[in-house]
Design goal:
about 280 residues, elongated
Amino acid sequence: MDACTSQDPDIISSMISYLAQTDSYFGDHQRDAENLSLEKKAIFLRSVLDQSAATFLTRYGIQLKDEHINYFTEKFAEDKDLMYQLKILKRELKAADQRVKNRRFVAMRGLLAAGEYFSDEQMKHRDPLLYEQMVGRHLTDDDIKSQSDNLLRQHTGFSTMLLEQMDSRGNNELYTRQLSREESQLEEEDSESDEECTPADDENNGISPDERIALREEFLHVMQERFLAGQDQEFDYSSVDGNCKYDDLVQEGRDAEEAYFDETDEDDLSVAHVSSLAPDEYDY
């Protein structure tokens, strides 16, 4: 096998540390895994890797990140058996990644249909600054009155009103922090960038109704992309990513078919390349 490079210890330590914090297999200690220290988990994982890279990949490969897979691909490039194992693993990882994307998309469709999660009120709660920049500052008096009326209809009772006030204060604090960060970033930019940003602070309510609608749709799109990317910190993605209830079997079939033909095309290219080599180019 290839000797370890100077970068090996860093990537290995990162990989071991990452796996030690996951719900992985820890041999005879599995029953007491919850009480096992991270140090002991790391020692066990490292011993498996030192004994056999193939066994390590079999047990933990599906949990590895791209940079970890790349490490094995580069280090064991001359090991045909391990490269074949990595090829299968990459296919499984790609399918698992696509499955998570599909499940999140199905979940998002349900949330959109339900209405609450992607309502202006809830999206404003998740990112008050972006909401203000793209939607809030362009609201008309009628829009504001309509929002207020809706809130009154949805939230009645003294206790609910108190909760709403507490939520509003938290919203304002997040808005202040976001605005402060943005202002700090703007101060670090050169004067030319500052001049380009200045017009956006002029009269903003003078835009047309079509432009307001377009900005509202763009804001919704940004929030949907964040959800799909797993960036909504208050959302429990584990309830979706590992839940077969959100499987779209038709889409999975399409993805499997596309993956099959993509792999077939790659194999055909490899065969064509080997066939094009002259006899003296083969390595006997």
